[in-house]
Amino acid sequence: MMTASNGMNGPVLELRGVRKSYGGDVAVENVDLELRNEEFLTFLGPSGSGKTTTLMMVAGLQQPDAGSIRLGGKAVDRLPPYRRDIGMVFQNYALFPHMSVRRNVAFPLEMRGVSQPEIGRQVADVLELVGLATMGDRLPRQLSGGQQQRIALARAMVYHPALLLMDEPLGALDKKLREQMQREIKRIHRERRTSVLYVTHDQEEALTMSDRIAVFNKGRIEQIGTPEELYERPTTRFVADFLGETNFLPGRMGASETLSCRVHIGNQVFDAQTPAPVAPGTPVVVAVRPERLKVQPVAANGEGLSATLVDIVYLGNARRSVVRLADGRQCSVLQHASQADASRLAPGQALQLSWESRHATVFPDNHT
Amino acid sequence: MEADLTRKAVGVASAHAIPTDEADAPPARPRRSSAGRMDVRIFLLVPAVLLLVVAFIGPVGMLLSRAFTHPQIGLQNFVDLWERRGFLQVLWNTITIAAIATPICVLIGFPVAHAMTHGSARLRRWLIFIVLVPFWTSLLVRTFANVILLQRNGPLNAMLVGLGLTAEPLPLLYNMSGLLFGAVQVLLPFVIFPLHAAMLRVDPAYMQAALTLGAGPVRAFFRVYLPLTMPGLLTGATLVFISTLGYYVTPAMLGGPRQTMIAQLIQDQIGQFGNWGIAGALALLLLLVSGAMLLLLQLTVGLKAVAR
Amino acid sequence: MKGDGLDRWRIFRSTVCVLAALYLIAPLVIVVIISFSAASFLQFPPPGLSLRWYQNLFNSPAWTNSLGVSINILIPSASMATVLGTAAAVAIVRGRIPGASIIGGALMLPILVPGIITAAALFGVYRGLGLNGTLTGLIIGHVVITMPYVVATVSSALKTMDPRLEDAAATLGAPPFSAFRRVTLPLLAPAILSGLLFAAVASFDELIVSLFVSSARVRPVAVQMWSNIRGDMDPTIAAIASLCFAFALLALLAEMILRRRTGVEPT
Questions:
Q1: What is the spatial order of strands in the sheet that A25-35 belongs to?
Q2: Does position B5 have pLDDT exceeding 50, yes or no?
């Protein structure tokens, strides 16, 4: 039995300098990346950021204006989709409504001239894989959204393509179903060891499912890395803002070395990290995640940023404290239930905020 | 009449869509509202329905009943039809002509509908205009124009001879060629608009999916696109077929004696011979054939959804 | 990318479209040109140009009478068809009438039934009522034939209109009839006008029912044309045909503008 791992040494997918514009608008600008064997790489970004367009170019459904695309080391720029070794799952599944589930899944095998008995076997196998072995004779419209999703996946995988493309496949599902399907997809990814290129605008989804994430913004990739790298050590303000929740505290750059620096907020000085050197005196923002902000009642030694507690939001397993800073801005502090119980805060209380240097990143404040 | 049929049926086909497809309807509203509304609405419907019954269903019913009552009660008229082979021949000719015209319309209409759907917006507007213009023009005008066009010394023959495609002018009038030339011209919108509507409803993702699954453009077309547009195609084809059956002006002006169609026969029987019985019988047969085609359409398109 | 297969299809498709366009339009163009012919036979291209056939048209009492009859039929029948058809469409789409869809289908019957049958049927019934050869008979016949189109057009527009607009009006204090009059009706206006135009053109062009029901003195333009065509054809026919064509063209343009206003593209 074949596994999806095709014993390749090089990357499954390589994009170099890929560019695409529509009329005057640049949709994708200078995209460079590699997708390694068996990797689950996600394109993450807001709508219009170029992630879907890039996916379409990998599939061959659209053509780049410049740059090169290589699949399995082979240049595929001239190849139409039906000659590329890819499988694609579409946003609204695109299951052929006039064919049964079985015929849908068998379709790519028929295109490849596989014999009928072999088709029967492989279709049964893959339906088993997605847990819908009994649905072979149903029509797509007789299936629920989640089931259609799994059949679309089965159809795209049955012929073991070198690369599986998924275009926001879970967008139409409700939250619980979405989470269930995320686990399903991950399970199938592990079992079949396929290489997956996944597109989504949901950053939680990206964080939980991916081996690596490429964050897209306005046609460019802002950062590529593992979920942890992107979350803990964002290299641009956009990435810090887009993934999870972040507080941005305005200040001025003080002294800085290669990675660490000191920032002036008000007339206090704090430690932080900086991904790139910034001239002292430049207006900056300090990005700190709510769960990394430490909060305590004002103490005698007066260190830490002054703030007043405005409100506490009950989140079940956590508490979000909304605090107001001296300059009127508001911040979020996130504490687990046990932490919150221990600190016993009350609205109106005067507080001081602090953080560990490694949990704060500084970015230039060139907000438009 | 051809023109009326054309216009209305296109309106029906594209507005209502005979295959019961209500994908574009807004979400159903909750079925509660003030009781008063129901009464008012019925009164709105009454005049139209009254007119329909009194001025259409009644008279047509009476015409059809004469098949069994005129000149005497019984099935004599049908026996007559059976014995007088000439009449059945005309009915058969009528069906044959419809059966020839229909595929011609589909073959020409499909590329045009496709261009209308997938071409540029400008192309679509132009095509729609070009298809609508003759559609809104009187059938008589168009048929008359075709008479001029198809004459032995008319412009079409002049062009064919001039381009060297034929040595001598072709007989294009008062025969099957003339009839088909005129009929297809009238029938094309019947096919183009339902097909266009059906093509618009095909999500481009289906073809994209087929391509990524390894189907080349030709196979993707036959395995995915064509089946998905088939309901619209069959609707258009059925409309074309049924319309052609009832043609009167076109065969009278462009066809020869061997292209006499059933409508002309009915008119003769009433106008010349006062044979209401035969006329009623012929009308009944015409309706039965039309009804059978509609039933066939309903069954085929209805069952299309269930694929093996 | 898609290779020359797709290009070949595009070329083929364009060729078919161009030929089809010529096929559909050329005859009309020829008629218009001939209507200006100086010769009295239907030769194309014409030897010279002249307006004599148009003059002949307006000087001939047969033609001017028939034009009068046509207009006298057109105005009442189109109006009635529009009023009845719109009311029926509103009732079917918005009302909660059981069997509404069957009734809606039945209202379409005059389209599906071949014109010859409708014509013969009416002729038969009119004989007993003395309605043959009368304006009334013709008007009734035309309403029967043109009403379905109004029903279809207005129903279609109603279905694409958000039914919650009337609900919104109700929550804002409008009783049902007011809501209809001030919210739905204005939004339907383009579709209603479109239906009216179509009914008018259809009535003007209608031949088969008119053929049966007319008499020598009461005959619309279409029947007059028909008898002329069956007799000797001279370019006067081309002149009236061109006028009919011009009328239809104007109506079509008006209808397309109206459709743009509703935001509904043709099909």
A1: A25-35, A13-22, A66-71, A74-75
A2: no
Query: What crossing angle do the helices spanning A145-157 and A101-111 adopt, rounded to 10°?
Result: 20
For residue A332, pLDDT over 50 is answered with yes
- B-facing residues of C in 168-187 (CB < 8 A) are 176-177
Torsion of CA B51, B52, B57, B58, to 10 degrees: -10
- For testing the chain A interface, which of B21, B213, B225 should be mutated: the one with the most A CBs within 10 Å? B213
Q: Letter for the amino acid at A239? A: V
The whole-angstrom distance between C2's CA and the closest CA on chain A is 6
For residue B209, the tally of other CB atoms under 10 A from its CB is 28
- Is C1 within 8 Å of chain A by CB? yes
**Domain spans of chain A?**
13-237, 246-364
Q: Which residues of chain C have pLDDT under 50?
A: 1-2, 265-267
Tokens standing for residue C203:
């009535």
Distance CA A307, CA A312 (A): 14
Which runs of E-coded beta strand occur in chain C?
none
Rounded to two decimals, the pTM is 0.82
Nearest chain A residue to B226 by CA distance is A98
**Min distance B296 CA to chain A CA atoms (Å):** 19
- Given A80, A82, A100, which is nearest B308 (Cβ)? A100
CATH architecture assigned to A13-237: 3-Layer(aba) Sandwich (3.40)
Instruction: Show residues of chain C in contact with B53, CB under 8 Å.
Output: none
Q: What is the pLDDT of residues A254-286, one digit of tens each?
A: 888 878 888 888 888 888 988 888 888 889 999
Q: Which CATH number applies to B2-9+75-304: 1.10.150.120, 1.10.3720.10, 1.10.357.10, 1.10.275.10?
A: 1.10.3720.10
The C-alpha of C231 sits at a distance from chain B's nearest C-alpha, in angstroms, of: 12
Neighbours of chain C (3+ CB pairs under 8 A): A, B
pLDDT score at A340 = 78
Q: What is the mean pLDDT of chain B?
A: 84
